[in-house]
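Cross-posted from the bioinformatics board.
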Amino acid sequence: MTTTKEQPKQYRVIGTRPIRHDGVDKVTGRAIYGADFKIAGALHGKVVRSPHAHARIKSIDPSRALELPGVKAVITSADMPRPKAKMVDLGEGPMNALHLRNNLIAEGKALYRGHAVAAVAAVDAHVAEEAARLIKVEYEPLEPAIDVRAAMEPSAPLLHDDLFTDDLGETAKKPSNVAKHVCFEKGDVEKGFGAADRIFEGEFNAVMVHQGYIEPHNATALWNADGHLTIWCSTQGAFTVREQVAEVVGLAVSRVKVVPLEIGGGFGGKIPIYLEPVAALLSRKTGRPVKMTMDRAEVFEGTGPTPGSSIRVKIGATKDGRFVVASADMAYEAGAFPGSPFVCGMLTVFAPYDIENIHIDGYDVVVNKPKTAAYRAPCATNAAMASETLIDEIAEWAGLDPLDIRTKNAAREGTRRADGLVFPRIGFEETVEAARRSEHAATRLEGPYRGRGVASGYWFNCGLKSSVTVTVNSDGTVNLVEGSTDIGGTRASLAMQLAEVIGVDAEDVRPQVVDTDSVGYNDVTGGSRVTFASGLAVIEAGKETKKKMAERAAMLWKASPDDVEVEGSTYRLRDGSKSIEFKELAGKLGKTGGPVVAQGSVNADPSVGGGFGTHMVDLEVDPETGKVTILRYTAVQDAGKAIHPAYVEGQIQGGVTQGIGWAINEEYRWSAEGRMTNASFLDYRMPTSLDLPMIDAIIVEVPNPGHPFGVRGVGEVPIVPPPAAIANAIYRAIGVRLRDLPMNPARVLRAVLTAAGTPPEDE
Amino acid sequence: MKVHVRATINGEPVEFLCEPRPSLLEALRDELGLTGSKEGCNNGNCGACNVILDGRLVNSCIVLAPEIDGAAVTTVEGIAPAGGLHTIQQRFLEHAALQCGVCTPGFIVAAKALLDEKPRPTEADARLYLAGNLCRCTGYDKIIRAVLDSTNGNAEETA
Amino acid sequence: MALVRIPPQLRKLTGGAREITVAGATIGEVIDALEKEHPGIRDRVLEDDELRPGLAVAVDSVIATRGLLQPVGEQSEVTFVPAVSGG
């Protein structure tokens, strides 16, 4: 269902639902994903990982492994060049080059269970596995820092003795696990709290969760004798892999070619590098291609989940339900090395609302857990769990409907955000209004232990750099060469924008994702940016194609290009005497100067085009077991303009489902020693088809002023509201407000029993 | 010592030698070049490696390769008729029931097994039957719709 | 003259002032002007003559994509913000 606000433009291709270009390959099993890639003579690599969360590595003895028939090489950190400890931005936000390298293979200390300490290459995967077990590593276990707040204390065990808190360019004198502090301030919070009729506050804890993509990480590397390195892998950003691998193996970027194969999900978790440089160094040492794949436990323990957090929020409101002041203290787990996306939590926590006085402190804290990575609107879901449930309390106190209190306080065009920027045209109010008018809202929910909850959420689209090339074929079709790896249908969404610009059908565009030698630079597929930012590059290339085609038509007619006008696919002289269709003109290029090739490249503005969502959920709590069953779910989202509405709905439904899993089941369970005790898909419980109803996605279209078609990024917003919406619904069902994630059966049952006056003795 | 395995895979007689320890998934992918079946977990939890073994839906990662001696196996590569698509595949495309697509082969095979058993499943039937297949992208909504919209035959139109 | 919004962490250097008006046609010139009035600011926002990694600057609420070369208008508002990407 699509609700269009403002005068809709008429499009031929945009807004239709063509079959995606890579579809047949994917339903027949022919699509080649990273692990499907084969190259003659390949060895298989395996990583040796630390069994301890925090330990000094005393020695590594590979001798027994090297004696095993079929074993070709073993590497440790000694085989990896050591870059200077400097901040670099290699496409994934700033990071310390030395930390990047030390996360790939530990040097001196292992900083989390699952941290790579060595790697082996052998003739096949089974021999490599056996050899990995024979590598003898001697550890001296150290006390781990596991809890984020405890890790901030001066008495906590230190992960890095050379890490000093950065406070916007000012560095602390003593080492600490707090890597960075950021602060936002707007208005005067002291005055604001004084003016509030009531202050609502709470502490909200969330544990680490994993992106849970079905395809494990993989990489095949060939370090050729000519000094050129080729890497085949599945990644969200081939160029990011190129930049990072070049940095850690000490090659110029032009010596590294990354070939992105099909990718089986990422959600932020396939931006960092893990196996790529390890396979590269094993290849250099053996002179043969080396293929590496992770098993599921390695994915959980050795790759980046998204941060757990401890968030303290206060919101002051007046009796009429107006928010006048808000503050937040947000501590996020960076994992073993600094660099969590904690700032995104700060930027989103109060974003949907126009609040005069705001103060936010955010902290990036290292703990002995895997280095965290982005996960779909990283850090925003944790933040919304805090602010959106307190808002529900305020609505109840003020006697307002949860949707009405959101409209009353909604951020609009011109509202100043906590970070000081002013919102351009945004569609938050429109999502609340569409939720109010939904069938779901019009239906009453009845029955014991049932409740309905509402929550909203925000995410920006991050802009960044994209490049594409368009070539016109003689049969009137066009090839679109792009570098944004396609995780969820972006070949289709980009091809459709090109088709719209040049007036052909979506099927007449052949989109291809190519390697880093074959297209201009592209930033990662992430930050809800591809359909928006790569779309801008495609539109630029499409316009350039039209201009060149018009020149060719002018040449045919011995006219000036200025006399040619283009409407859709028709090129004609202004006086109406001649006209030709794009397809026919394409057949005449050979005789009018040769091929037509056009390019587009952008560095897109990230400050426009943010998106909002408002969700409504009905659920039932089983008072005997504490199990929460989702009965009905409606997610409204402002997509700006839905290029391919079916894939926009799919993004919304997928994000909601991940949010539901995060809300009621998913978590890294830690032993006291810092060991993840549930590193399998059986024990790390992601939603299955049996756990869910259909998910109604309602698309609202408030055009993004920064994109010709009005596209807003849609991928990330839908994971933000679900935990808060579900917490609010659980409150309506059992009368208890839950503040910690996940709200699993044990926690919900405890709440039910406590409310009944019979609390259990222990969780 | 290598084991001699004779089986029928996607209707074709196949013979191969293998060590006793590889899984059927490894044999399919590494020995026979059938990489449509995917490894998501290698312990039977995700369904990305689903194949039909003598009429039963199984996770090929927890079947040993030598166990298929004498058996008939259908993989995702054997679902479509020559030059066309099976209805299930066509409906997956029409309903946009895939995003990254890595779980899709498992779902197609599982849906085929479901429709073999029950040509007109209800939504509840489909949700129960497909609960062994994890998808992290779609939220299952469009997958369930595609399956309920499928009949157990070849697509009337081919892509 | 551009209006610069001073982040809370730099207000010690500006004697608590939250907003400062300076002249400058580019972000680089604005930072030079700030440094002249409030020594120490430059080192907090720049590293190796570029914006510090992780820091971005917005002119009239549009994130600058040209760093220190970004033009600043006569009536512009300049805001330092953390750089973000996403999942």
